[in-house]
Design a protein that fits this description.
It is built from four helices and 13 strands. A four-stranded antiparallel sheet has the order 2-1-13-3, with helices on one face. A four-stranded antiparallel sheet has the order 6-5-9-10. The chain starts with a helix and ends with a strand. The chain is α+β, with helices and mostly antiparallel strands and 183 residues long. Bound molecules: zinc ion (3 copies). One zinc ion (ZN) binds next to loops.
Length: 183
């Protein structure tokens, strides 16, 4: 008798899902939040609800859209910026430019050679004439404004714009899944 009631409730549960145009599932580090809070409305385990929703996607009754966003593990903000850091002094004041070596031994960014409307060595003050003759173009690299280091690979760091927390090179992502009613 009890079992029958339970089955009946389950069938009713399914239909309640379709009372909503869309259901949002937020997955933060494997902790699931539903909006509307369908798991508590239906009194069902959140993982079980996910598999039900996914099965409804397979039967084309719901559409599933997923976006992943980096989030701050301190304040939960998703307002995150990517920084390029100097591998020597960890400064974020770095810029990308073409690196040129002059025959006098000076090595620097193209910007440093720019003089009025031509290129001139900032060390020996001679004008740059022929590539591979009096100067060599080394390629595009990064230069640190703070310690002058020239490097190819910056350190990647993610930083929270809301609280300033450093999230490192591979921060955690929040998953936002939308289940949208097909009809
Ligand atoms: Zn020079
Ligand atoms: Zn530096
Ligand atoms: Zn934060």
């Amino acid at each position: 008798m009890y079992r029958k009631t339970n089955e009946h409730t389950e069938i009713k549960d399914y239909s309640r899902i379709f009372e909503y145009d869309h259901i949002t599932l937020i997955d933060i580090d494997n902790i699931l939040f539903f909006d509307p809070p369908l798991d508590s409305i239906l009194k069902i385990d959140s993982r079980k609800l996910v598999s039900k929703l996914d099965s409804l996607v397979l039967s084309n009754l719901l559409k599933r859209e997923e976006v992943q966003k980096i989030y701050c593990n301190n304040c939960l903000s998703t307002d995150i910026r990517k920084e390029f850091l100097c591998p020597r002094c960890k400064s974020s004041r770095v810029y990308k430019d073409i690196i040129i070596i002059h025959m006098c031994g000076y090595r620097g960014t193209r910007k440093a050679y720019q003089y009025i409307n031509y290129l001139r060595c900032p060390k020996c003050k001679k004008e740059l004439r022929r590539e591979n003759d009096d100067y060599v173009v080394e390629g595009v690299k990064y230069k640190c404004i703070d310690c002058s280091k020239i490097f190819e690979e910056p350190i990647i760091n993610y930083k929270c714009n809301s609280c300033g927390n450093n999230l490192g090179e591979s921060p955690k992502k929040i998953k936002i899944i939308k289940y949208i009613r097909s009809l």
